[in-house]
Amino acid sequence: MSEERKSRYELFLEEEARKAQPTKRCSKCKDVKVLSEFSKNKSTKSGVQSWCKACMSEHIRIYKNPEDRFWKLYHSRTVRVGDCIEWNGAYGSSGKKKKQNPQCIWSGKKSSVRRIVYQLSIGELPNDMFVFTICLNHRCVRHSHLFKGTQADWETKCANSKARGDENGSRLHPDRLARGDENGSRTHPERLARGGKHGSRTHPDRVPRGDRHGARIHPERLARGESVHGAKLTANDVCTIRQCYTGERGQLLALARHYNVHPTLIGLIVRRKIWKHVE
Fold first, then answer.
1. What is the DSSP string of 163-178?
2. What Cα–Cα distance (Å) separates residue 41 from each residue in 45, 47, 60, 68, 170?
3. Whole-model pTM?
4. What is the pLDDT along the chain (279 residues), one digit of tens a residue?
């Protein structure tokens, strides 16, 4: 058998084998192809993509440039609301108040959509600069509403955007505040973390102890001596008590009556159990 007739015979066998396999029409090029030429997709009824691998590869090559891919994602994930263009894609938290921050994948990692829009449409942005919105809408990603600033500008913006006085929500809508039996701890007590579910039990390593405790890190913030609420003695009184005490019988009672305190307190001062910071 010649090489030409052998190749024709092999093509015939391949054609017969292809006819025996299940096929599907590509919705892009409209050609009927076997299922092996389609990528898998469990969300569809057939279990494969509607486009074949060749059409999908050609389509992806159109957006090979990362900037083109981002603007394609930008226009598909945004909607116009008034003067703003709001992001309908993924969000992340930022700051103590956990405000929503538009995010997407850029250069293989999560990045802020506002920073990407600013860099592509306005100009370069250093890492120590922030991007703010003049409309105070945390969902807005319109490039004309963006401007850059420093950390101090960010803190000033947050301070100026707080509602104060009669503009505060508790003043505008006092009926919406949950009080008494309407509080979340009363309406859903099962959601409170108690016993073994408490954070100090589940993550004991997060509880500050020893040298990590606030009393060790910032001892100047502790209320001591005269700064303690309800203190009856001063530092001069403590020094005088320690100088006058000689250990004679009845001297604790006499000092307690003189300073109008309990004799136990005088004993603790003399033994330096309390007022340790006073020499």
1. --GGGSHHHH-GGGS-
2. 9, 5, 17, 25, 50
3. 0.43
4. 454 556 777 777 777 766 667 778 888 888 888 888 888 877 777 778 888 888 887 776 666 788 888 888 899 999 999 899 999 988 886 654 455 789 998 888 889 999 999 999 998 888 888 898 888 788 899 999 998 988 888 778 777 777 666 767 777 777 778 888 888 888 888 888 888 889 899 999 999 999 999 888 988 888 888 888 888 899 999 999 999 998 888 899 999 999 999 999 999 999 999 998 888
DSSP letter for 140, please.
B
HEC secondary structure over 198-257: CHHHHCHHHCCCHHHCHHHHCHHHCCCHHHCCCCCCCHHHHHHHHHHCCCCCCHHHHHHH
Integer angstrom CA distances of residue 219 from 212, 213, 216? 12, 10, 6
CATH of 66-159, one of 3.40.50, 3.30.390, 3.30.1560, 3.90.75: 3.90.75
Domain 3-62 architecture:
2-Layer Sandwich (3.30)
In the chain, domain spans: 3-62, 66-159, 229-270
What's the rounded Cα separation, in Å, for the pair 97 and 5? 76
Query: Contact at 8 Å (CB) between 177 and 184?
Result: no
